[in-house]
Write a structure and sequence with these properties.
alpha/beta; Alpha-D-Glucose-1,6-Bisphosphate, Chain A, domain 3; 6-stranded mixed β-sheet; 6-stranded antiparallel β-sheet; 20% strand; globular
């Protein structure tokens, strides 16, 4: 009797595949996904036996999911090079280091326990974008599989090769005291070692691996995690605090006073620092990022251009690649360093190293460096529930509504909307530099809301209240994951 196959079509998202396991996908479904991915890789590479680097994160069920995925890949003719327990950037690095044809990383990143997924890519340094995900979905659900004879081998000690690559040439002269928080996720066996080895004095916080995530999800945008880091920084009189997500491709930063610095502003500090050496450069930032980039005095003095683009690690990676930008920054904490600084992919530990270089090069505390930027009042990323089947329609209707408000010169907190960007949801801006954003989440059944004002905290809140009223009036919105008052 044929085993029951379970694979929810909504799991094929914009640039990752993510499901609740085993509710929305089972091991038979994962194996079929492997067949679909193997077929897609063979079609793109034109190779009968392409080599695929595979890794997994430290969730209780990730290894069994990886085994089912490999079984599907091998059945199409793929040869697997399994590097074992990994971070996503370790898998990305392995594609360059081992010169393989593609990658597949079993992870649900910072999603709550119960979620699983796969980050995958064919061209080096890039991961699947919507076009590739649509193609993969079609191959998988229609079972248009190639049959072949593949195989697999274990790559031993690749963790050390990855660590050494980040440690070499990154030694710092100043003894920086760093709190390293990993939320009991996979980064716990990487980040402390690497940062100690470049010369940091490391204080570990929740770095032991525990797939139950007993305190909070390893998510550097989660206020609970950030508050825990802030407390540890203050108690230890540390210079800086770093928080890493579940698969190690994102970074959150707390300054020496225990204040959170949103990652888009860390990105701006790094961009400023790089612009002196690499003038005439391009930087790519996502639509959730601060408006300060476009008018930054130092970037403009150094003839640098900033492009606002779609949120999502695959989108920003690709834009950095196609624009030949020096670096890309996402508010969620994904940083991308292109040649000569990196391979273009996102690595949270490498991002932390770049922040250490920033501190090493300046005779200032982190709080003083951040004070060099104009002050803005910014919300965290807030995600109200909205069904996957409804979220894009809700956003489309809100785009029309906000364009109508702009055309009719309706005022929000006494201001008219003067610019609308619709490259990813809708980002509407005002003359004073304040803005609000509504977009559909790419990997969960929710929307994403952010607001910022350089004028006042009150204006930031008023813009959020305006957005929240619009959302509540749709009747399609559930609870927020976190919400400003």
């Amino acid at each position: 009797m044929e085993k029951t196959l379970k694979i929810d079509p909504f799991g094929f998202r914009e640039y990752d595949a993510r499901w609740l396991y085993p509710d929305n996908i089972n091991l038979e479904g994962i194996e079929v996904l492997g067949k679909g991915l193997g077929t897609q890789i063979i079609n793109h590479t034109k190779k009968i036996n392409p080599r695929i680097v595979v890794g997994h994160d430290y969730r209780s069920y990730s290894e069994e999911i990886k085994s089912a995925l490999k079984k599907g890949l091998i059945s199409t003719g793929c040869f697997i090079e399994d590097i074992g327990l990994s971070l996503s950037p370790m898998v990305y690095f392995a594609q360059f280091n081992l010169n393989s044809d593609a990658i597949a990383m079993v992870t649900a990143s910072h999603n709550e326990n119960g979620w699983t997924g796969v980050k995958m890519g064919i061209k080096k340094g890039l991961t699947h974008a919507p076009e590739e995900m649509k193609e993969l979905k079609e191959i998988t659900l229609n079972k248009k599989f190639i049959e072949g004879v593949g195989g697999e081998k274990q790559i031993k000690n690749f963790q050390k090769i990855y660590k050494d690559n980040l440690i070499n040439n990154n030694k710092i002269g100043k003894k920086i005291k760093v709190v390293v928080a990993c939320g009991n996720g996979t980064a716990g066996i990487f980040a402390p070692d690497i940062l100690k080895s470049i010369g940091c004095d490391v204080i570990e916080l929740d770095c032991n691996l525990d797939y139950t995530f007993p305190k909070y999800n390893p998510n550097p945008e989660d206020l609970k995690m950030l508050h825990a880091i802030a407390k540890e920084v203050k108690e230890n009189n540390a210079d800086i605090g770093f928080g890493f997500d579940g698969d190690g491709d994102r970074l959150g930063v707390i300054d020496n006073n225990g204040n959170e610095i949103f990652s888009d502003k860390i990105g701006l500090l790094i961009a400023r620092n790089l612009s002196h050496k690499f003038n005439n450069s391009k930087f790519v930032v996502d639509v959730k990022s601060t408006g300060l980039y476009s008018k930054d005095r130092i970037l403009l003095e150094n003839n640098c251009e900033t492009i606002y683009w779609k949120t999502g690690h695959s989108h920003i990676k690709r834009k950095v690649n196609t624009e030949n930008a020096l670096a890309g920054f996402e508010k969620s904490g994904h940083f991308f360093f292109n040649k000569p600084l990196g391979y273009g992919y996102d690595d949270g530990i490498n991002s932390a190293i770049q922040v250490c270089h920033l501190l090493n090069s300046q005779n200032k505390k982190m709080s003083e460096i951040i004070n060099d930027l104009p002050n803005t009042y910014q919300t965290p990323t807030m995600s109200p529930f909205c069904k996957d089947s409804e979220k894009y329609k809700v956003v489309k209707d809100l785009v029309n509504k906000i364009e109508k408000i702009k055309n009719e010169k309706e005022k929000i907190d006494g201001q008219e909307i003067n610019e609308i960007l619709t490259v990813n949801g809708v980002r509407f801006s005002f003359a004073d530099g304040s803005w609000g954003l509504i977009r559909a989440s790419s990997n969960k059944p929710s929307l994403v809301v952010v607001t910022e004002s350089p004028t006042s905290d009150d204006r930031k809140k008023k813009i959020f209240q305006f957005i929240d009223n619009l959302l509540q009036n749709t009747g399609k919105i559930g609870e927020y994951d976190q919400k400003i008052i």
